[in-house]
Design a protein that fits this description.
The protein has about 425 residues and is an alpha/beta fold. It is built from 15 helices and 19 strands. The protein folds into three domains: about 140 residues, 3-Layer(aba) Sandwich (Rossmann fold); about 110 residues, Beta-Lactamase (2-Layer Sandwich); about 160 residues, 2-Layer Sandwich (Alpha-Beta Plaits), CATH 3.30.70. It binds magnesium ion (MG). The site of magnesium ion has 5 residues, from strand 4.
Amino acid sequence: MNPVATIRVLLVEDEAGDAHLVRMKLGQSQSEHFDLCWAQSLTEAQQCLAASSFDVMLLDLSLPDSEGLATVHSARAMAMAIPIVVLSGRGDTDFALTALEAGAVDYMVKGDFGYDGLARVIRYALLRTEMEARNNLLVAALEAAANGIVITDKDAVVIWTNPAFSRLTGYSREEAVGHKPSDLIKSGLQDEAFYQDMWANLLDGRHWRGELINKRKNGSLYYEELNIAPVKNSAGEITHFIGIKEDISVRKEMEAQLQKLASTDPLTGLFNRRVFLERLEQEQAKVARLRRYSAVLLMLDLDFFKRVNDTYGHATGDTVLKAFAEIARNNSRATDIPARLGGEEFAILLAGADKSDALTMAERLRQQVAEIVIDHEAGPVRITVSIGAAILLADDVNSEAVLHRADAALYEAKDRGRNRTYWSCF
Ligand SMILES: [Mg+2]
């Protein structure tokens, strides 16, 4: 509080002698100036309130137009926002408490003001009102926050949650209070080590942040980013934890889409070159590591594809590529990696396949491609594919070797008249 500020006091007191005493006491204050307005009844007090504003009301309970606790109730109703300090002739503690319950912020026995007592009570009443207003403001901010907020005691038992917490988890504040969050929303999808790490940080007094999958009241799962801060008292002991939760399901979904975009060819939806080469390298390592495991690489190239583009246009060329990709996909097992390496160049990595599997698959695919007919106003468009096949060898230093062999086989298939599969003899 600013020490030179003027404090506007509404004194409601019917005894002139008592009013004089209050005026005198407040006039003695060194630290602030009191601007006093004196009303002798509730009716007069109402007129004062209508005419100007006040910081605090000093209220005598025995007035010509009101008596006892009813006076507090009436004054409260007239001036909701102003702290009321009750002045009474009684030194009765029980009555004082009743007055506080009725809405007064403090209570003083008349004639018992001491040197600075009354000024101090007023200062305290103002400070308390200011703190309450500030507290209400902070609670309103937490209530309005978009992120779920949960406050627990030191044993992680919930004592307060905000509406966003309820929107996120499906649990109302009443349902959450008294329980541990782990009893409500733990999905079981994080291992014990995850929670051990979290608690090791928190109990050490450190802030913790993590992403986890939790479970709503209705059983559905969601991704959340969780920030937890331990709250300590002045002795440095942890008294509470504050958890702030953000639903990141949408972000996770977008990340998955981006991941898909980054790993697939946009035209055909097949894997792109980068993913294909990674998987080929992994498969090469597997072949080198496991006896009796084999895998085959098919390199596929559409015959005379440039002619299709030049004759019928790029839109038709794209239709051909998509039709081919569809066949490649349909002939692949879940473990295979069909990919577009660029232009009209494709590859299929047949994981776990041997020569016989691979040649059967390649031949079936070649025939289906030869049956493709794309309608075009200039007449039906047909296409064929040449395929080079090579097996991954345990002795290969890396996947470059099999790529080279399959390429050579593809060249041989082209050289021998196209629309055929050639098996690398090396
Ligand atoms: Mg009186």
